Amino acid sequence: MTPEEFRRAGYAVVDWIADYWTTLGQRPVTSAEPPGALAAELPDGPTAHGEPVDAVLADLDRLVAPRLTHWQHPGFFGYFPANTSGPSVLGDLVSSGLGVQGMLWATGPACTELETAMLDWLADLMDLPERFRSTGAGGGVIQDSASSATLVATLAALHRAGDGRWRAAGVDRRYRAYTSTHGHSSIEKAARIAGLGGDGVRQVEVDPATQALRPEALRAAIEADRAAGDVPAIVVATIGTTSTTAVDPLPEIGRICAEYGIWLHVDAAYAGSAAVCPELRWSHAGLEYADSYCFDPHKWLLTGFDCDAFWVADSGELIEALTVLPEYLRNTATESGAVIDYRDWQVPLGRRFRALKLWFVLRWYGVEGLRAHIRSGVALAARFADRVRADDRFELAAPHPFSLVCFRLLGDDAANAELLARVNATGRVHLTHTRVDGRYTLRLAVGSPHTTAAHVDEAWDLLAGTAAR
Amino acid sequence: MTPEEFRRAGYAVVDWIADYWTTLGQRPVTSAEPPGALAAELPDGPTAHGEPVDAVLADLDRLVAPRLTHWQHPGFFGYFPANTSGPSVLGDLVSSGLGVQGMLWATGPACTELETAMLDWLADLMDLPERFRSTGAGGGVIQDSASSATLVATLAALHRAGDGRWRAAGVDRRYRAYTSTHGHSSIEKAARIAGLGGDGVRQVEVDPATQALRPEALRAAIEADRAAGDVPAIVVATIGTTSTTAVDPLPEIGRICAEYGIWLHVDAAYAGSAAVCPELRWSHAGLEYADSYCFDPHKWLLTGFDCDAFWVADSGELIEALTVLPEYLRNTATESGAVIDYRDWQVPLGRRFRALKLWFVLRWYGVEGLRAHIRSGVALAARFADRVRADDRFELAAPHPFSLVCFRLLGDDAANAELLARVNATGRVHLTHTRVDGRYTLRLAVGSPHTTAAHVDEAWDLLAGTAAR
């Protein structure tokens, strides 16, 4: 494809996206078709001599778009949001066009330096502890997801716990990881990947009133393991759990970790974005105890997946844990020690120029634009919670400090599952569920910049109306 | 940003990329600026109220582009290529605009089904063994990189070796991984991540004539480990090693793995693309023994990073190794067992709609277009090798079955390092180096669709001319 062919086809694709966003609210949020519907309509392979882009775009409309779950839809309230924005898409488009490999500083100096700068910008914007800035021993990096951030934090913690033996000799299965019973599934997955097995993870009980980890239960679990000869290696605390956005008490947890010399990783995948607003920074109190911290701009900060922002207080430990230097990657810049080679901060070797989308987003919205977005989500969630509170057929299942509301119909689990299925079947909204204290609970998560009060009210009207029937 | 603002800015970014590609050959391939040059020119943070896209594009020109290593430059011959193409950029742009999360079938049915179909298309196109098709127990998935493919293959192998105990009880440090001394650094990294430690990897010697793994040495290493009470768990064979594109003898290695019940993973990160050409499929002989296989369309098949195509013969083992199912991800489609949830095939939970870029590339180029691209690279490498062969100051350091040529100036390592530095300093070309049999060796890797005979000849003229001086 020549640059001129790309220019013409590029305009067409930009138009396609602009039109998609314009008409998104009129589409069903999810597809009602059964598994295999798309597969059945695809040919068995590519043609011998190629096809024009127009043909592909026509199939995108005819075959693909109708079989999607539309995550950018203003009526999408499922899981946690994964919203993008115009500037994010444009930043990523530049990244695709440049096609730069950022594995080493030498393979893309600006790719590395812009990433370091964007993570410092974010740290300032969120008032993160000084220890995470690149000006000291710490620094930030973009991971694909919070799952990967938790994995590399776990590996760095094992390296530390192993006193230098882990790199060569492997993991000691007596090492233990701790999180609350509402810690994300990626914590168990990271422990399994790292060779600890699921048995290596202690799921510490939560306070029923807050759904947050109980520090005294954490201390008891650590003491019991130590008494049994096991070695506490990492605690993963959460700011904004996936089920209910509970906030674990970092100051108490942090003091325990400091006392026992345990790596503290803080997973704020969703709720971290809230810290751009000064009035929501209470959620990050105690973060100065953390050895590592991450949040996902790709969840609630208008940046397209994949963009997890991950910081460590001591990048040296992380690099030692992960680096392998073959001859074909040696270069004078690396050997000078004056540069960052981000390949040593992550699992894969290769990496895209993901800092560009953050740069575009931060510059387009500015500080106040980002705050306005977060505040809108919090306000819409509060508006929805008020409706729930005012209807005595419903109850709130947990506090809603951010933009997620957990609620249920007074009644059994089956009634709530039925309500969810019926409301989602309208195609107007999409909600998901969790369990709180063992009970089936509906979740409404606001995050799209296109979601307005009217969309939240429609969701409530559908829920209330369906409950009435 | 409204859809109409996006449309206008989108055209501008498309123009920026088309212009970048048009002028790329006139830019220096690499930047000569020292570390910190970009960082010193960036402001300390975003503005309060946002800026227009034009301002960001101006800084892209002024600050970022001059500090890049231009991987899409026709004179870029370093590492392995990581080329993109117009249709790939457009497919990824659609993916960014849709902003779909493909972690579960339910969260993006078409995202999952198109990915399965594209991996089956590729398997057909490359004539991969039947066991990797989704129609049986096997199937393919897109990973971010071959590093991640090697990691998940290692985890599945440990799960198998552990007879079901690995998931809960963790890794047994007696498990062993095997590769040649030229296996990629990601193999050691995967072993370290998985808790085996670097000591868990046996680097098996190569045949000096071919730089390929010696099967009898592999057998001896396995026997020695078994005699010592260790447990051989995985062999990683390579089609196209990073240093010299050596091809390990899969038929012999495969029979050894079958005999001892060891997982065989085949890493064809770069050279796998060659299999789209029937005349290059000799390199994949013996692949029917493999439990898993991967190659990177983002290296040599015109698809932008990140796109590693990874297949397993038994997806059930991989899924068992990696799945964790929390309540908030439960859904009726998953429970029906009729769908693929690709989150269980990879480390991260979230995933982008990466199949779109493959779909755009396969349809735009067609079968013959892709073959022509591979054949062009092989022919250009052969042309360059002929120049080396014809100049008695130089020697070829290894066979060149694909599009990489390894060569050196007759002389010591320092002379070759000096030659590389001087040629790269011209900014016209960029080559990298490796060591073959301990000796410093230059590598010229062809891959860009923009690279022509004239660019390869220019590279040779620079090398020969510099050597003369």
TrEMBL record, chains A, B:
N6-(pyridoxal phosphate)lysine PTM sites in chain numbering: 299
Cofactor field: pyridoxal 5'-phosphate
GO biological process: amino acid metabolic process; carboxylic acid metabolic process
SUPFAM superfamilies listed in its UniProt record: PLP-dependent transferases
Record bears the keyword Ligase: no
One GO CC term on file: cytoplasm
Molecular function GO labels: aromatic-L-amino-acid decarboxylase activity; pyridoxal phosphate binding; transaminase activity
This protein's UniProt keywords: Aminotransferase, Decarboxylase, Lyase, Pyridoxal phosphate, Transferase
InterPro entries hit by this protein: Aromatic_deC, PyrdxlP-dep_de-COase, PyrdxlP-dep_Trfase, PyrdxlP-dep_Trfase_major, PyrdxlP-dep_Trfase_small
Family per similarity comment: Belongs to the group II decarboxylase family.
Name of protein: Aspartate aminotransferase family protein
